[in-house]
Amino acid sequence: NLNGSKNFHDIKTLLSLSAGFSSSKNRQLRQDKPITYNNRIWSLSPVINISPMDWWSLRTIGMLEFISQKTMFEDMSDKSSFHQFRFDVDFSILPFSKLELYYNLMYANTPISGAERKNSFFMDCGIRYRMTNRVEFNLDLQNLANQRTYMFSQYREMDKVESTYFIRPRNILISCILSY
Known about the structure:
Layout: E1 2-8, E2 13-30, E3 33-53, E4 56-73, E5 76-96, E6 99-113, E7 116-130, E8 135-142, E9 149-156, E10 159-166, E11 171-178
């Protein structure tokens, strides 16, 4: 893995970039026959934090992965590759010293099966009021896009694991946090 970052103090901005590569080569038995596979995963993750003024901030995080797999069985071979992408944005405005308005957006583009891909949007927003250092009130509007499921695939060695999360529908959450 390779990480790098640059902080621009005069404009209160941090730029960061992480890159990774992993490779695995192994052999498994399937129905008592050896199957050789080779997996390669390249990843790139940029992060930008901007808060040039005391009353607002913006943070973005991206994730891009390229995955390739080569499988060899007896004298046959098969290659497959795909990519997946995710992008998060958090935006906050602080109009007064104790009040924060915030918005969160997450976009994911993931493979489901074959050439089929799933686009998912998740949006939340809310108001946070910090009455004192020990008392905080929150009003959260969650899942504004009203997504019902989040599906993604994970590839480990020769196996593909598909996961589906069922999500609460659009909702409002009011909370009071007391710290002591």
